[in-house]
Request: fold
Amino acid sequence: MGILSIVITALFFGLLFLNLYFRISLLGKFKKLVESGVRLKFVHVLNTKKLTQEIYPRYPKRRNDIDQFVNHARLSLKLAGIIVVAMIAVGIAIVTKLG
Reply:
């Protein structure tokens, strides 16, 4: 059980660090977009079609900034999802080994 506990603790701190890093980074990029007058909804981050149809035509000069923010947000969501799944898998392994 010792090694699995260490792994899940490391994954937890990895998730915490990832959260802080992306939060600081994403907030900076989002602040830049808001100051430029760009209005994004969460659906635009997840749906490329809506982003292309609704946001890019409205803010063509800010396309690069929008792309950076959206790509960074998507990467953050993917990495957090992977770490959470890994934590669940290790947790299941711990419970299975104990039970």
